[in-house]
Design brief:
Blueprint lengths: L5 H15 L6 H6 L6 E2 L15 E2 L1 E4 L2 E14 H4 L6 H5 L9 E2 L4 E13 L2 E5 L18 H7 L9 E3 L12 E4 L2 E4 L5 E5 H13 L5 H13 L2 E4 L3 E4 L2 E5 L8 E7 L2 E7 L6 H4 L11 H14 L5 E5 L8 E6 L2 E6 L3
């Protein structure tokens, strides 16, 4: 499978997503827009069942580094489509640590949070991943997210951002790279250096050229930034600032990369799409529809999970909903995800 455009993502979801969508599914992002709240409430009006609990923190510190979750939208996704052929009864078997903000048993749906991470430390305001982006008639899917408002609620305007990095170029990670102005897609962050993986750029350009990937994601969300001249092409690891490093982790996409943070003896990893849902921590072997190279993705995911088990590293995945941040720990039944504070 090539890069997922919005239309492709919707196609993957198919009737599943349509039937799973609930009215008022942006309630969480609306509420998070309020600066005073700074939490993500959950409730009956949102896509996550009221039993999911909450409210949830959106701000964390890792030594001298502050990490803030900037929410776009939260949506359910049919688990059978996400993990074709997988024994989905595993969700019930692990229900004690997979509550409804991770998996909704009534709808048999994993819960997707689409959010960015704002990484702030001395001299650096950085955004990791830019979600779905601006709703416009030129985009195939209307998410009605409140991403820009949530960024503002965190005290950041686009012109404040020094660095943008996308863990990869799937549509849900590049959208706010640009905005539509007078019929043209222009960079959202005018001052920012954009740290893109060179392999990811080359692969997307080649697949668009070959006609195997629809051009919209490239033309709307990547090419305008490349043409702005504000892109640094990364061939490997890259030190962004003291304690903030970008590390390649190919598999989910050819040039996938993640971010490692180490500050004052504390460590965290912003793992992008190495894992999409906590069930993969127990079952890294499951085949996942979102992975471009399923074998490489499985190998990278397995290595990542093994090397981050029972170590003092906080995991910030790109799509974990609810409490979001946590650790990978071993238990009697196997590895599991344990949210911070549990
Ligand atoms: Zn993603």
């Amino acid at each position: 499978m090539t890069n997922l455009s919005r239309r492709h993502w919707l196609a993957l979801a198919g009737a599943g997503a349509a039937s799973l969508a609930l009215p008022g599914c942006t309630a969480g992002s609306r509420t998070i827009s309020a600066p005073a709240a700074r939490v993500i409430p959950t409730g009956a009006s949102g896509p996550v069942p009221a039993s999911a609990g909450g409210p949830w923190p959106i701000d964390w510190t890792v030594g001298d580094v502050r990490i803030t979750k900037v929410l776009d939208v939260v949506e359910p996704f049919d688990a059978a489509r996400a993990y074709p052929g997988a024994p989905l009864e595993a969700f019930a078997a692990n229900a004690d640590w997979l509550p409804a903000h991770f998996y909704d048993p009534a709808r048999k749906a994993i819960i997707f949070s689409f959010h960015s991470y704002l990484v702030r430390t001395a001299g650096l305001t950085m955004i990791v991943d830019t979600c779905w982006g601006e709703d416009t008639p030129l985009r195939a899917r209307q998410h009605h997210g409140r991403w820009l408002e949530n960024l503002a609620a965190a005290g950041v305007r686009p012109e404040h951002v020094d660095v943008v990095t996308c863990t990869h170029f799937h549509a849900d990670h590049v959208g706010w790279n640009t905005r539509l102005r007078d019929g043209r897609w222009v960079p959202t962050f005018p001052r920012a250096r954009h740290l893109f993986n060179a392999t990811e750029i080359a692969q997307l350009e080649a697949s668009v050229e070959a006609g195997t990937t629809p051009p919209a994601v490239y033309e709307q969300s990547v090419q305008p930034v490349l043409q702005s001249g504000h892109v640094i092409r990364l061939d490997g690891g890259y030190d962004v600032a003291r304690g903030v490093r970008i590390v390649p982790s190919p598999g989910h996409s050819p040039g996938h990369q993640h971010v490692e943070i180490a500050s004052r003896g504390r460590r965290a990893v912003l793992s992008g799409d190495l894992v999409h849902n906590p069930i993969e921590i127990r079952h890294p072997e499951w085949t996942k529809v979102f992975d471009q190279d399923k074998g490489a993705a499985r190998a990278t995911r397995t290595r990542f999970i093994e090397s981050h088990t029972d170590v003092d590293v906080t995991l910030f995945a790109a799509h974990f909903a609810g409490p979001t941040a946590g650790r990978i720990v071993s238990s009697s039944g196997g590895r599991r995800f344990r949210p911070l504070g549990d």
